[in-house]
Write a structure and sequence with these properties.
By secondary structure, the chain is mainly alpha-helical. It has a single domain, classed as ACP-like (Non-ribosomal Peptide Synthetase Peptidyl Carrier Protein, Chain A, Orthogonal Bundle). Helix content is about 45%, strand content about 5%. It contains five helices and two strands. It has a two-stranded antiparallel sheet. α2 packs across α3 and α2 crosses α5. The longest helix has 22 residues. The protein is globular.
Length: about 140
């Protein structure tokens, strides 16, 4: 049997303040949804034909960090679940991608058998209008 520890709202445990009821505790990036700042910055000096390759490599880097391996050991077309990504690692990967790229993938998108390449395509599709305007504003061709 495990002990159950109940903390009052507002209490601090290991540097984390217990949120109010109904509040959301965000671990990692402070603003992920709707933000493509990291992604736009990463793709700013990259020709549009290479966006998919660059994003795929970034996703494999993040997945490799979560899996405690190197990105070159992750096949871009192989489903990430084949590497042992379970629900907990999928959440860790989702948070890592949000923190580093500013994109909001769901845990289910990661667990649904998607490869790094498929996730890169989904991110580019979802963020292409925002990316186009951000890249144009930064002087890069859209």
């Amino acid at each position: 049997m495990f002990p159950l520890i109940v903390l009052a709202t507002g209490a601090v445990l290991l540097g984390w303040k217990v949120p109010e009821v109904g509040a959301t505790l965000v671990v990692g990036a402070s603003k992920v949804k709707g933000s493509t700042g990291g992604l736009a910055a990463m793709l700013q000096d990259v020709e549009p034909a290479r966006h998919l390759d660059v994003l795929d490599a970034a996703i494999r880097e993040r997945a490799a960090a979560v899996l405690r391996t190197t990105a070159d050991r992750i096949d871009p077309e192989r489903p990430l679940r084949d590497y042992g990504i379970d629900s907990l690692l999928a959440v860790e990967l989702r948070v890592s991608l949000g923190a580093h790229l500013g994109v909001g993938l769901t845990t289910m998108e990661i667990l649904a058998g998607a490869s790094a390449r498929a996730l890169a395509r989904a991110v580019l599709r979802a963020h292409s209008p925002t990316l186009s305007s951000n890249l144009s504003l930064n002087g890069a061709p859209s």
